[in-house]
Structure of DNA-directed DNA polymerase:
Amino acid sequence: MGSFLVSKKRYVGLKFEHLGDKGHLDAKGIETIRRDSCGVVQHPMRHWLRLVFSTRDLSACKKYLQEYWTHMHDGRIPLTHYIFAKEMLPSFERLAILMGVDVRKWYNALPRKAERAAVAPSLTRIDAYYSSQHCRVCDTRSFHRGSICADCRAHPQRTAMAVESQVVQLDAELQALRRVCVQCMGSSWGGSWDSSTAMVCRNFSCAVWNQWLPTAVATETWKTNVKVESSVCKND
C-alpha cells in the first residue's frame, strides 16, 4: 500500500525518485500540507501515514493514534499545536475509510475519566451541583466561595504553610526555566512573569516557552489570589 486517492484533488502517497529510494510523502489537498490546518492534525497524520505505508500494521496505527490522543487529554501536547484547532477525527476518517477502518471507534474505545456524582439530599436543585469547585489547597470538591474551602479556612496555619510551599515550588520551577532561557537568549532579562520584566522570547515552537507560560500563570494566580486569601483567613 503506497497511496490514498481520497478524491480528484485530495491524495497522498509515497514518492520514489530512484530505485533505492525509501519513499517520501507527497500530498495534495489533505491536512498534512493545508495551511488552514494545525499541529494536532498535521504532525500525527504525517507519522500515521508513514506507519500505514511502511508497516501496513493497523494495530500499530491504532496504538499510535490512541497514545497521541491520550497525550492530548493529559495536556502533554504543546500549546502551539492547537493554533487554528479543528476537529481531528474526520481528517483521519477520510483516509482510513478507504481501508474499511472506522478510526472513530478507536477513539471511542479510549478509557474515560469519570467522577461519581455527589449525593446530597439537602440539595434539590440541579444548579447546586454545577456550582462546585475544587479547593486550591487540598483539591477537595466542595461548595465554597473563593479559592479555599471551609475546612482549610478553619485551619489557617496549615493552609498558610501549604500555600507558601506551593509558591516556593512554582518559583523554583520558574527559576530553572529562566536559567535555560538565559543560555538561549544570552540575557537574564525576560525570564520572569513580572510586568516590568515580562518574557521577551516569542519562539512559540519552543518547548521551554510552552512550559514556562502555564507555570508563570499558575505562579501569578497563587501569589495574587490564593496567597492573599489565605492571609485573610489567618487574620480572621
